[in-house]
Write a structure and sequence with these properties.
four-stranded antiparallel beta sheet; 9% strand; Outer membrane efflux proteins (OEP); alpha+beta; TolC-like; cell outer membrane
Length: 405
């Protein structure tokens, strides 16, 4: 068995040993959508999603209540037991309940809702980032495997040529130096193949670490004709951050003093042993005074946060527009490059066929034949890369539009 085939088996043996899983079809294939979903499930953002949503729900529930903070209970017991011991007893209980004013309560509820909306925007943006990482990993691995296939064919062709040259040397048609040149070409091809094998293994490990999936999806993503940037997850997240900063600024401007407190009291007392206990109740309200100076630092911080968030949203929109335009241009250039590479490969293959026949008839020397082989290999490799680069450009355009697979 040829050395190139041994390398191919070594690279693909781990893939052949795997059984189809829940992300695979009946034929063992896997889709980009499924791989992105698998990578998202492995991500830190995904694993913390439920806890963050529970936190947002807890803040919403807390903000919708009328109590600004937990109530406090004060208990006081008074007696003359340590001095006169005439029977004077007094027990007093006082419950203090901090209350939110309607305006503060509404502002707090709006902030909690904005926090929940901002969380969902952040999660969508994080998922899109995972999709970008998966897309790049998939195409990098596909490019590496394309180079592996091409280099395996190159090794097989150079080995066949070296065997033919060796036969003709023994027949006396070629010089021994030609055999040495042919065998040197085999060694060069094998060295290049070894480098590509190492690259494929590296890309495979990085892909598996990211996704937890062994198989590489075979499906491609067509380039979208158009897209709605206003629905882009990154832009939604930026707008959510601006809305949250705006809600915090409003809340800071509304709560200019501490919360008022409802005070409920009960007192039970007597003057001496011969008197009956008298019970009294009381209801009171504590109204703290406040001023703008109390919340001036909070208002300043919230205002700075709002300015930063709005500026970020504006810059994000400009950046996304630029990315879409650049990605569209890349798609067109990739398609043109694929067309040119296909024509180059056709010409190189035709020239190779002619020069192979010429070499068989002794019309050209071995270096000319090797140059033809190298030109055909380079053209074939460039065509495979151009096709993959065209697919990657389409995938990047979908990413620029904020579209998941």
């Amino acid at each position: 068995m040829r050395w190139g085939m041994l390398v191919a088996i070594a690279v693909s043996s781990s893939l052949a040993a795997q059984q189809p899983d829940s992300r695979s079809g009946g034929d063992g294939s896997v889709t980009i959508r499924a791989v992105v979903a698998a990578a998202w499930q492995r991500s830190a953002a995904s694993r913390a999603t439920e806890a963050r949503r529970e936190l947002a729900d807890a803040r919403r529930n807390a903000a919708s209540g009328w109590m600004a903070s937990p109530p406090s209970l004060t208990l006081v017991h008074t007696s003359d037991r340590l001095n006169r011991n005439d029977g004077m007893r007094e027990v007093e209980a006082e419950l203090e309940v901090p209350l939110r004013t309607p305006g503060v309560r509404a502002a707090g509820a709006a902030t909690a809702e904005a926090e929940a909306a901002a969380l969902e925007g952040d999660l969508a943006s994080a998922r899109l980032r995972i999709a970008a990482e998966v897309r790049e990993a998939v195409w990098s691995l596909r490019l590496a495997r394309n180079d592996l296939d091409a280099n395996e064919r190159r090794v097989a062709q150079t080995e066949a040529l070296a065997a033919d040259v060796e036969r003709r040397v023994r027949a006396g048609d070629l010089a021994r130096v030609d055999a040495n040149t042919a065998h040197a070409a085999v060694l060069v091809a094998k060295a290049a193949l070894a480098e590509v094998v190492a690259r494929v293994r590296r890309e495979q490990r990085l892909y598996e670490a990211l996704t937890g999936v062994v198989r590489v999806p075979a499906d491609t993503e067509p380039a979208p004709e158009t897209g709605d940037l206003e629905a882009h997850p990154v832009l939604i997240a930026a707008r959510g951050a601006a809305d949250l900063a705006r809600a915090r600024l409003h809340e800071a401007g509304t709560a200019t003093r501490d919360s008022p407190e409802l005070i409920l009291g009960m007192k039970r007392e007597r003057g001496d042993f011969g008197e009956r206990y008298a019970n009294t109740t009381s209801v009171g309200v504590r109204l703290p005074f406040g001023s703008d100076a109390r919340n001036r630092p909070l208002i300043g911080a919230a205002n700075a946060e709002l300015i930063e968030a709005e500026t970020t949203a504006t810059l994000q929109r400009e950046r996304l527009n630029a990315e879409v335009e650049a990605a569209r241009a890349d798609v067109e250039l990739a398609r043109q490059a694929e067309t040119f590479a296909a024509e180059r490969a056709r010409l190189a293959a035709d020239s190779r066929q002619l020069l192979v026949k010429a070499f068989e008839f002794g019309q050209i020397d071995l270096p000319a034949r090797l140059r033809a082989e190298n030109d055909a290999f380079d053209a074939e490799l460039a065509l495979g890369r151009a096709r993959l680069e065209s697919g990657r450009a389409a995938s990047r355009l979908k990413q620029a539009y904020g579209l998941l697979p």
